[in-house]
Task: structure prediction
Amino acid sequence: MTANATNTATSDYDLAQASARGDLQAFETLYERHHRRIYSLCLRMVANPTEAEDLTQEVFVQLFRKIGSFRGESAFTTWLHRLTINHVLMHFRKRGVRLEKTTEEGEIDEIQDLKSTSESPRFIDRIALEKAISQLPPGYRTVFVLHDIEGFEHTEVADLLGVSVGTSKSQLHKARMRLRELLNKKV
Result:
């Protein structure tokens, strides 16, 4: 059996336990399995590719530190998803802290409110988004969820659904266009 076949057959729980014992190869396998999904989640939350890349790396550093606390009471992907959400929310809180600049005499010269920067992500009402996604035709919705939410590549989506890569790309494009229409009606 090859190393790749072993990595595919090993469960996330087993890899997490091995990682907690210091097995770097097991941690690397977890990273390879999940980094695209984590990046996708971060990108959806911050709407900035560079910031999403940084956050993804920070999440995996955090994972490396906390992997021993994974008890297997939930799916590893659920636990990692929650870890990611918490990390990104903490990032928003830190960014939202007001910075006070003081003069040499100790007087407050200016206050910069980081929440008012133009880099703030545009959030869409979660209920409206879920409703819009539920209104997509089944084929559009399936490809959208697999690619944009779960982070699968088009080749993986095509394999899972038994369609061509071109069909996957086309369905995703149509799903995004339809979502824009549905969400613009709400605004």
Residues 13 and 72 are 6 Å apart (CA to CA).
